[in-house]
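Duplicate of earlier report; NAD(P)-dependent dehydrogenase, short-chain alcohol dehydrogenase family input re-posted below.
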Amino acid sequence: MKDIQIKKSEEQSSQPGQENKMTPEPISIRDNYNGSDKLKDKVVLLTGGDSGIGKSIALHFAREGAHLAIIYLSEDDDARQTMAEIENEGTRCLLLKGDIKDEEFCKKAVNETISHYGSLNCVINNAAMQFPAEHIEEITSANLHTTFETNIYPYFYIVKAAIGFLNENDTIINTTSVTAYRGSEHLIDYASTKGAIVSFTRSLSKSLAKKGIRVNAVAPGPIWTPLIPATFNGEDLENFGKDVPLGRPGQPAEVAPAYVYLASQDSSYMTGQVLHVNGGEIIGG
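Output:
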């Protein structure tokens, strides 16, 4: 895909950001991506599915025949647009607005998904927040708590609520990050939560292997999503993603097919693993 030209003026004032205000607009799915019913009639619960990587996952899953339940925080316009695009693929979409830091809301979201669709086959933990800080002394207690309470606690809340509805051959997919492997000097708390997600994925996969429920993760590199203009500014925003070997930030459409693979029978002999879609960074793990 072509290089993305990001301007300093694209910064947004609050997280998790709004896709409908981004220029250039992220590419959520390629026109030439042809679905083949890999996920036909599967029911998928996805956090942070209104925009960015989450929206792209939702559209790819819909094109593969899945029905979606999308959790989002507050971006109503983005959520409604994503719902319309999912339904345009010929599948169904349930919007669930709320804060995943609240365990009771997470339980409610799972129960509403079951009530609406009657089943659940795939859980995708994807939503995240980040607060850049140049030095650890600059990480406020409030931002530290928000980062952990958004990025890792809900993984436990949602899986605990959903596990009783998942069966053999069902899947759980978690979004970690390249920062979990190479670190990030200005995202110490965020990278720490992403490292926790790697350990969560590996441990949960062992716990559920006997039940035939597979647990894997995807570790994206720099991807052009609403979270980026909502958290970076100035030169950091303009130079975003240019330091990877491919020399550019990635598009959500370049990440989402990895989730399709992990949710489908194509990956039936894979659990406890992480797929690295990061523009060419060579990392361990």
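The chain has a mean pLDDT of 92.

Merging into the original ticket.
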